[in-house]
Amino acid sequence: MDEQLAIARKNANTNKTAAKKALERKRVFQGYRDQTEGYITTLEQQIYAIESANINRETLGAMERAASAMSQIHGKLTPEKVDETMDKLREQNALGEEIVEAMNSINSANQVDVEDLDAELEELQQEQLDEQILKLSNVSVPGAVHGMPAAARGEHASKAPMAEEEDEDTELRQLQAEMAM
After folding, report:
1. Per-residue pLDDT of the chain (181 residues; tens, 9 = 90+)
2. Coil, strand or helix: which one is 155?
3. Which parts of the chain are coiled coil (predicted)?
4. CB within 10 Å: which end of the chain, N or C, has fewer?
C-alpha cells in the first residue's frame, strides 16, 4: 500500500494516469484491509460469544451438580418434616423434665421434715415429764415433806445455814435421781 502511494507521488507530475492507477489500487487495498479488519472484529466477537456461552454452560452444569448434591443431601427432607421433628424433640424434652420433676418429688417425699421431728421430740419429752410427775405424785406425803426445803415445811431458820444447803443438795440429788428414771 505504501508502495502504491510512492509510485503515485513519483508519477503525479509526469504520468498522471499511472498516478491515478496507483491511487486506485491504494483505495482497493484499503478496502480489502478494512473488510479484513471487519472480519477479524466479527471473528473476535464470535470467539468472545463462544467463550461466554462455554462459561455459561459450565456455570449451568456446576449449578445442576450443586442442585443434585443438595437434593441428595436433603433427601426427602421438607420443612414440614423438620417442624415435625422439632415438635417431637420438644415433646421428648418436656417428657424428660416431667420425669425429673417426678423423681424429685419422690426424693422430696422421702426427705424427713425437720419441723415434724422437732414436734415429735417435744411430744416425747412431754410424755416423759408427765410420767415423772405421775411417779412423784405416788410418793408418800411424809417422805415428800421431808424432801421439801425447811422453809416450805414450816421450820424456822434456826438450823445453821450449812445444814440448809446440805438439805437442798440432798433434795436436788433425789429429784435428779427420780428424773433419770
Report:
1. 677 667 666 666 677 787 788 889 889 999 999 999 999 999 999 999 999 999 999 999 999 999 999 888 888 888 888 899 999 999 999 999 999 888 887 766 556 677 888 888 899 999 888 888 888 876 554 554 555 555 555 555 455 566 777 888 888 888 878 776 5
2. coil
3. 107-134
4. C
